[in-house]
Design goal:
Length: 78
Amino acid sequence: MGYRGRDARPKLALWTLVVLGNVVLLVAAAGVAVLATLVSLMTLAGAALAGWHLTRRGSVTRRGGMTVPVALASRRRA
């Protein structure tokens, strides 16, 4: 009758916990670097897009290449 007092739950070995901890630390370290890279790339792309929109906004090109400011609300729809 020695089986009644036995704990049948699965046990994790100490080395398994150490390996899992190392994996978590590596993923976290790589994740922070990847996250920082993505944030900086998205910031640069957003700034470039905003700059492009600001240079294109409110101007209509004439034949001579000169730009004339035009209010967006005053344009007629076709």
